[in-house]
C-alpha cells in the first residue's frame, strides 16, 4: 500500500484516477464538493495555495492534476499563479518536507502549438496561449531542477465525469449532448481542425504505468491519431441516430488556435503504454454513460 497525494482529485481525470487507486492505497486529495463526489479518501477541500501540509505526513507518490485549464483566459498573472508558482511550492514542499520519491504531473499538448506533427517531446515548443505558456514554463523548471518527476503532455482527453467543467468540457462530450438534445452543434469554421483525442481510461492506464516506472522526464499522452471536428460529429450522429444541425462560428482565438495535433507515442511506448481505445470505441463507451 502506498500513500498517494492527488491534486485535483475530484476533477475529471482525478476522479477516474482515485477510483483506480483507492482499493490498494491510502489516498489524500485536493478538490471541492462542486465537482465529482469521492468517498473513502481524505479530502483537503482547498486550492494548491491553501494546502494544510501538516495533515499529509510522509508521501510515497504525488500526482499533480489541479490546474487552471481555461485556454481562453488571458490573465497571465492569474494563469501563472495557478500553473507555475503554486505547483513550484507544492513540489518543493513534498520533496523536502514529506520525503516524496515520485511525482507525476499534468503537462499539455498545447505547448507544441502549430508545430510539425506528429509532436515529439524533443520538438521546439510553440505555445499559442497564456495557458500553454504556463505549462511550458513549469515543464522547463521541472527539467532544470532534475526532479524525480514525469510530466505527461495530455492531448485532448474526453470521457465520463466532466459535467462540472461546463464550457471547458471536451468537444466530444458537448457534441454528444447537443445531438441528444436536438440542439445546434457549434463548430469553429469549418470543422476541419484535427485533434488527437485520447480516452480517459487510456490516460489512467499511462498514469498507473508511471507510478511504477523509474523513468523521469516528459512523455506524450495521446492516441497517436487525429480526427477532425466534422468527423467527430459524423461518428457520433451515426452512433446515436441523430441528424446533426451544424453551425460554423468564428474561433475567438484566431490564429492562436491549434489546427492539427497528433502525438508521437514512441517515447511513451517504451514505458509500456499502448492506447486501447480508438475514437469510435471511446465514443461508444462514453455514450453509454450519457444515455
The whole-angstrom Rg is: 19 Å
* CATH-assigned fold name: Rossmann fold
Summarize the main sheet: 7 strands, parallel
Sequence of secondary-structure elements: EHEEEHEHEEHEEEHEEHEHH
Class of secondary structure makeup:
alpha/beta
The CATH architecture can be given as 3-Layer(aba) Sandwich
Strand order within the widest beta sheet? 3-2-1-4-5-6-11
The share of residues in helices is 25-40%
Specify the CATH class: Alpha Beta
Tell me, what's the shape? globular
Strand composition percent = 15-25%
| Annotation field: number of helices | 8
CATH superfamily: NAD(P)-binding Rossmann-like Domain
Strand tally is: 13
Residue-averaged pLDDT, rounded? 95
Give the low-confidence spans: none
| Beginning-to-end CA distance, first to last residue | 36 Å
The tally of domains stands at 1
Overall description:
It is a single chain. By secondary structure, this protein is of the alpha/beta class. It has one domain (3-290): 3-Layer(aba) Sandwich (Rossmann fold). 34% of the residues lie in helices and 18% in strands. The protein is built from 8 helices and 13 strands. The strands form 4 sheets. Strands 3-2-1-4-5-6-11 form a 7-stranded parallel sheet, sandwiched between helices. A two-stranded parallel sheet has the order 7-10. Helix 1 packs across helix 5, helix 2 (76-97) runs parallel beside helix 3 (130-145) and helix 4 crosses helix 8 (279-290). The longest helix has 22 residues, at 76-97. The protein is globular and about 55 Å long. It starts with a strand and ends with a helix. The mean pLDDT is 95.
